[in-house]
Amino acid sequence: MTVDPGHHVRTDEPHPNLTAGDGAVDWAALEASGEFEELVRRKRRFVVPATIFFLAWYLGFIALAGYAQDFMGKSVYEGLTVGYVLALTQFVMVWGLSWWYLRKADREFDPLERAVIERAQRGPDASRPGEGAVPFTAGDRVRADREVQS
Fold it and tell me: What is the DSSP letter of 147?
């Protein structure tokens, strides 16, 4: 077993044993498993762009409030200014991102989390229920009915 500079544990064996002899979980082997790596990859693909969007939207609002006071003070409707409208869009944006994350978690992340937990509980060589010994690969997709398919 080796650890690369990014602190990712790699094993030479094709299927590392995820449980020690006493039934405890081998966390390093679990972290190196395909299921866990795919879960982290998919979460990162969502979280990083969503965070960048959130920060850009928020910092853009702050910059406008600080440097475009005339624009932010323009009336949109009977005392409602552009600044107030943009401030209210912050709430809409956060609720929208939260809803989107919950939807992705329910449809994509949770099934992968269950696969990681199952792998930790049964070990790498046990087959999935009803599938035989089919290894999980990075190319596996999550179907709408919350099952993992190859």
Answer: -
Question: Is position 32 within any domain?
Answer: yes
Q: Determine what percent of the chain is predicted with pLDDT higher than 70.
A: 65
**Residue 141 counted as domain residue:** no
Task: Give the three-state DSSP class for 70.
Answer: helix
Domain count, the chain: 1
Q: What is the pLDDT of residues 3-28, one digit of tens each?
A: 455 544 444 443 444 455 555 667 77
Rounded to whole angstroms, the Cα distance separating 1 from 73 reads 61
Model confidence at 31, pLDDT cuts 50, 70, 90, reads confident
Domain range for 66: 2-128
Q: Which pTM value belongs to this model? A: 0.59
CB count within 10 Å of CB 81 equals: 15
43 touches 117 (CB < 8 A) = no
Tell me whether residue 148 is in a domain.
no
